[in-house]
Amino acid sequence: MENQLQLYNTLSRKKEVFKPIVPGRVGMYVCGPTVYGKAHLGHARPAITFDLLFRYLQHLGYKVRYVRNITDVGHLANDADEGEDKIAKKAKLDELEPMEVVQIYTNDYHKNMTLLNVLPPSIEPRASGHIIEQIETVKKILASGYAYESKGSVYFDVEKFAMENQYGQLSGRKIEDLISNTRELDGQDEKHSSLDFAIWKKAQPEHIMRWPSPWSDGFPGWHLECTAMSARYLGETFDIHGGGMDLMFPHHEAEIAQSKAANGHDSANYWVHNNMITLNGQKMGKSLGNAISLDEFFAGTHPLLDQPYSPMTIRFFMLQAHYRSTLDFSNEALQAAEKGLKRLFAAVKTLFSIEASAQSTVTERVVELHKNCFEAMDDDLNSPIAIAHLFDGVKMINSIKDGKEQISKADLDILRKLYYVFIFEIFGLYMEEKAEAGNSETLSNVVDLLLNLRMEAKANKDWATSDKIRNELTKLGFEIKDTKDGFSWELKK
RNA sequence: GGUUCCUUGGCCGAGUGGCUAGGCAACGGUCUGCAAAACCGUGUACGGCGGUUCGAAUCCGCCAGGAACCUCCA
Length: 493
Hints:
Strand 14 and strand 15 (486-491) form a beta hairpin. It is built from 16 helices and 15 strands. It has three domains: 6-274, Rossmann fold; 278-426, Isoleucyl-tRNA Synthetase, Domain 1 (Orthogonal Bundle); 437-491. By secondary structure, it is α/β, with parallel strands linked by helices. The structure holds one RNA strand.
């Protein structure tokens, strides 16, 4: 299959033409959420970024197996802590079973991803469901000599690995710098070096999540699940590995080293990383306490939000920035996205209602537009550029509607297909229907009644009454529009 | 402290050497009884100081400010 798609590969730090291992097929693994809290805006970034890539690859004709995991075990709160992991901690606080916590937040994540129109991955494996695979991976790493057992835990020997292999390529780190820069942490006597990381961790007596293993009752190290599960579902070497930039080091670096140690060769060919969402210039993260949950965005309940923002506003907001740039949250920016999207959708509706002419005055522009949109996407998924081109097209569409330009049937078909494919299939946007006047037919009838009275007042040129009805309704949150043969209205709040 | 990266018009956000993205806001116009909405039109910005070049937002250096990672994080 021929394509011109270029992706920025963090490994090489440049854009590379994408070539899959097996022609026509793509294996993609993306680090999913750790389900110990509500899904927030930060979670939406990689989900939407890789949803865009998933959709675009499929559009190019690839059969894609997209694996995105759920981390429900093993992430230590601190690599050298008392052995209690985040999920267990939360479970005790809430007096819930750990798996109950996992289920609650997994459901929350799924619900929000569905609202954002993020397609479900092909496989969504859970770490807790792949303990056996992880134990087998630990065994393979021990056999290769790059890990050692210490007091029931198993650690990856980073320095030994680095002597014989490349380590730190992804994050641009040098082993010497790492050695000289690591902080001294408590409780590292089990490890030979502070750089070493656990691939199996012995559970303390109070630790709830634990599994038997040849070394101890415990749980897998926090980087291991991705190595084990990607190999299981995509093979030991696969095409694309994605995730947030904050995972580059140490998570992905550890994955690369583990996979090489376990399997003898590199895991992923293309490492793709999305950048962060920032709030007042600072990363939005649960641990920083500045994360706004997606529920809060949709309901507008967070103190920092001026209004609710719909899932499509948020999706469009993210698509208007390149995935490798930080994207700063602000009410102003979100509102700009909301209005822009509304305008784009209005043009799509127009596009499907305009009539074709015998002549076309826009043939060249249609051809250009088509080319430009795909070139933008091929250039490392440059969705903001593609959107800019689509907005250029909006002007053209409106000019056709106004009769300033003409379009032939053939051109119209191309244009309709282009917008349909880009907006709905590749960008994954959908038109959100406003809930009709709070779902009340009665209220709807009352508003119609008032506006019909206003029509009568207008017919009598009783502007005072006419304006009073309109102004009062506007105050109540209705947007009144006069049309050629009457009126239309919608509830804005 | 180390590593990496960023600084674009009122706001957001593309753009890697010449061809002045786009959105929102603002302003002007069309439409309207007046509005609203919609549509059309207008904006020569690139942190500071040097350097390279015929030519730099774009390359190099220095300075200033900011961020991410180095600990769990999307």
